Hints:
Elements: H1 10-18, H2 21-50, H3 55-60, E1 62-65, E2 68-70, E3 73-75, E4 79-82, E5 87-89, E6 94-98, E7 108-111, E8 120-121, E9 125-128, E10 133-137, E11 145-147, E12 149-151, H4 153-157, H5 160-189
Antiparallel strand pairs: 1-4, 2-3, 5-12, 6-7, 7-8, 9-10, 10-11
Helix pairs in contact: 2-5
Amino acid sequence: MQLSIKTNFPDVQKKLQRLRSDIADKALSMAVNRTMEQARTAMQREITGTYNLKAAYVRQRLAISRAIFKGKSLSFTASLLGTGKRSANLVVFLVRKAPNNGRKGGPQVGFRIRKGGAISRVPGAFIGNKGRTAFRRTGTGRLPIESLRTIDVPQMFNQGRINAAVVRVLQQRFPEVFEQQVRFYASRMR
């Protein structure tokens, strides 16, 4: 997953043309980085608001590749990257493990993927690997088993509503953050 925003921000371009190059480069790189951090927070809020995930789990799977200003060179690329795999184990959506109550087949395991959604039960599902993985038996005996997988953070972000909310934050906040950074670096250069 990689987020790419292409817009010219006309106010920002006018301001860049009037500034000294060293102030402009530093302010631009810091503005890009701060805006990407705000976009990551917005993405985390949108995903945890829609899916039954903890914020720490989502935060752990979002990384920022920062824009860098070193000496006279500036790297203008900043990326919000989804780290991890294409799928997550279903155990991250575990909502309850009901007791057996004398029924055959062990305890009932329930999962809720979307907030407010129904609790789903997978026949033959059980939690193993010290509580880190959900499995399901595929045969009649103890083996073979398979890991239960579902979508992970990168695929959640690619939904139109979540993606649009993050892009909106980027487009609204970047000019403001850039203005703050210009004032900061201009005051330091006096």
